[in-house]
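Write out this protein's structure.
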Amino acid sequence: METKGMGKIIREILSETLELKKRTLGDPTLVGEIEKAASVIVEACRRGNKLILFGNGGSAADAQHVAAEMVNKLELQRGALPAIALTTDTSILTSVANDDDFCHIFARQLEALASKGDVTVGISTSGNSLNVLEGVKVAKERGATTVGFTGMDGGRLAKLVDLVVRAPSKKTPRIQELHITFFHIICHLVETELFGTSSS
């Protein structure tokens, strides 16, 4: 009985995830947002600018995941692309949180690292993570293009960034699953635009 119950839950979650991806496929606005995000990153790389990503929890993991795929590769053997995740330096994170406030852990790094023409990606499933919002504010002051990845409601982040990509769900796990799919698509587009067609 327990196994059947688990199987039902598994099928329900997979069905929900599949339905959300189908909804994305049928939404020209959302497809356009993903395309615009890829385009601004491509143009930044062509100019010699960099990609900076940041978020909390699972979104922090996404930031690191995407930075790794930019610097190393997604599919193609190619030159490295400049990308930084602001969630990896524990000394910076803990010193800013300890000496100042946790809400400034990204803002302080963006003050140091962001330049005009860079693309910054703030990831927040709710759209209301204070440290992400503070980071975006500094990125805008530094002249960077700001992109927000969030959920259906968008929160405060959607109103603050230059470009928003909204996953069409209010559930954090489903939003995160869609975000990494969107990021994989973007990394694929960036690679193929800059280095040619994938052999796969």
